[in-house]
Amino acid sequence: MDDETFGVWRAGIGLLSSAQRGLAFHDLALAEANDPVEFLDAAIEDVGQGGSDAAQAEALAGASSGCAPDLLSQVGQDRIGRFGCPHCGGHDVGRWGRANALPRYRCKGCRKTFSPLTGTPLAGLRYRERWMDQAEALISGESVAKAAERCRIDPTTAFRWRHRFLSALNFDKPGSLSGIVEADETFVLESFKGKHRDLPRPPRKRGGKAGKRGLSNEQIPVIVARDRTGATLDAVLPRLDAHSIMAALGGAIAPATDFCCDGGTAITAFAREAKLKLHVLPAPGHPKPEAPELHINNVNAYHGRLKEWIRRFHGVATKNLPTYLSWRRTIEALGDRMKPEAWIMGAAAIGPYQQLTQI
Fold this sequence. Notes:
About 30% of the residues are buried. The chain has a five-stranded mixed beta sheet, with helices on both faces. Among the domains are: about 35-120, no CATH class; about 180-315, Nucleotidyltransferase, domain 5 (2-Layer Sandwich), CATH 3.30.420. By secondary structure, it is α/β, with parallel strands linked by helices. Residues about 30-65 have low confidence and may be disordered. α9 links the parallel β8 (about 260) and β9. It has 13 helices and nine strands.
């Protein structure tokens, strides 16, 4: 895209609705996940404080933030490499001292300053010395009450922190799935947890069962697709049909992919519309004898782990379900790299799928 067209595109950002901005962030996140970038250790010019004073301030910042000394500097360098200046997108950036115990940078294009956290959900969040505790709570999958106790904060603050730390991960997904891809839908009971008035139905009290037997509008469809490397795409569907699945998965699965599913009407219609190499399996756990590598066991096992993990929260509000899907997806993506530092980077919009592109 040339500069003139890009300028016109940027000028229209302020006219986007909240839903349109969400879709734009989603598409940008998918594109960025495929863009390899380089660290800027040597590229960022230090035009701020002197060497010894800066090193001492760096150590003090690490101690006060509760993070490893270089973690927030690494976040800043990674974000500049991937996104450029948060104000104008320019990459001609230099160090500009420190502010509020954080490294500060200055863009030579727009001449504005910013910190590693500018433009992220962590910007302005207080008590940085407790962020590592919050990251540990996310790793453990703790309840709000336990996370509040661990972080020494009020439960309402713990709930807000949880969603601040997870919000950027909603957009951290693999750019594409390849090889053999398994896809299947599952269902989660609709929940208005936290809503105490104007409910569209009588409350279930302590019950966790649907009022109607079988599938109904009380069951929220969730689509999950995984390839054999473990890369995962998931989405809450507004309805179970080919159009909704196309909106969630379309463009991320190449036509050459071996697409395995259980033959459901909606997912089969999606595969045909997307012109995928469709393989309908007779039943979960029973691959075709002539092609034993084609099955949907992995995606069904993921469904089981997801639902078992969600059970600890005693219900998840449907409006927050995408966030909890992102939480579980991040746990699976990090694997043996499950460290608090990785969660803080994810909260700063450098999630595990973007970390995989790191050179």
